Each structure stands twice: as structure tokens, then as C-alpha cells.
Amino acid sequence: MTKVEIMPGICGLTAIVTAESEDGMDVTVKVESKCKDVTKMMEEVGEELDAMEILFHKPGTGPLYEAAAQHCPHAACPVTSGILKCIEAECHMALPKDVSIKFL
User: How many other CB atoms are found less than 10 A from the CB of residue 91?
Assistant: First the structure.
């Protein structure tokens, strides 16, 4: 199981993402967030996902970003990307490593 915390910024609506996969292909993803937009996005996408189908698209495209485009009004929200990073790590398609954006 891989678990990440995504702190999206000024909204303060932290997301906790849990991904679990036995075979590195089929993955169960659960997202806890008080953000109604993220909740709607995940309701549309579902919890049971095919890692290859969800991960391998050009940036800003694919099923998760399509759902985000319908439900999330903030283009810069990092939650969608964070969900994908969690899936990548759980399915051994990328090593787990923190990412960050800092204002200087």
C-alpha cells in the first residue's frame, strides 16, 4: 500500500490518497478530501483502476484529467497529479519520492 498527503495550497483542503495493488496493474485508489470537486472527480473515475490506462497519457490528458476538467475549477490544483504519483509508486512504475512547489 502506498499513501500520500497532498496539500494543495491556500484552500487548505488536504487530500489523503491510498493506492493498493497486488499485481502492479489493477489498483484500488481511495481519496479522502473535504474538497467537493475532488470527491466528484473520484466518484466519476471510481476506485478500481487499470494502472496502464490511467497513467500513460500526455500531461493533462487521460481519464483522471478528463474527470478533473469536468469537476475541478482550478487548473493548477496539484491533487490530480498527486493521485497519479501515488499510483505510479504503488505499481512500481516510478520510485516514491516527494515532490514540491515552493514560492521563493
Answer: 21
Report residue 16 as a C-alpha cell.
489523503
Contact 79, 35 (CB under 8 A): yes
Looking up cell 512547489 gives: 101
Q: How many CA atoms lie within 13 A of 42 on its CB side?
A: 23
48-53 contacts at long range (C-beta below 8 A, 24 or more positions apart): 49/87, 50/25, 50/26, 51/21, 51/24, 51/25, 51/26, 51/27, 51/87, 51/91, 51/93, 52/25
**31 and 16 Cβ atoms separated by less than 8 Å:** yes
- Give pLDDT, residue 8: 93
**Full-model pTM:** 0.94
